[in-house]
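It would be a great kindness if you could assist me with a short task in structural biology. The matter concerns a single protein, recorded as an amino acid sequence and a row of backbone structure tokens. Kindly check, if you would, that the fold set down in the tokens agrees with what the sequence suggests. Thank you for your consideration; the sequence and its tokens are set out here:
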Amino acid sequence: MRPSGRWATPDEPVLTLYPVRVSRDVAAIATEGLDAWRRGDFETLEEVLDPDVEWRWFAPGEWDCKNREDVMRTLRERYEQGFAKGKLEFRDGGEDALIVISHPSEIAGPEWPEETATIMRFREGKVVLMQDYPSEAEALAAVLAE
């Protein structure tokens, strides 16, 4: 069943939500933003991002996004590349956070990672940080190490 309470059609991407212990507000904000991205509704997506949001890749480098404008540019690029159609899964990320797992190679082919996991951190109803990891296991280890 879709987060909106309806069943997905066979050709519609499914957002898989697993039980998480994060607050309802965090899960609702993440779902709202990710659903907006899937629809190409960038105005709604932008509203859930803090102006100073950061999105960090596995290791620091040129790919890192330092503000909402950088993040939005990257999300638009990923949308155009078809990544919004991919299956996403949520996991518990601790207080005011959750982990979003994706499988980029299913959309873009073997040159992309088989799995990535992003810890999304929230403050005052906005996403303030997205930290990427090469796998769900590494993201979970990072959460447990905090």
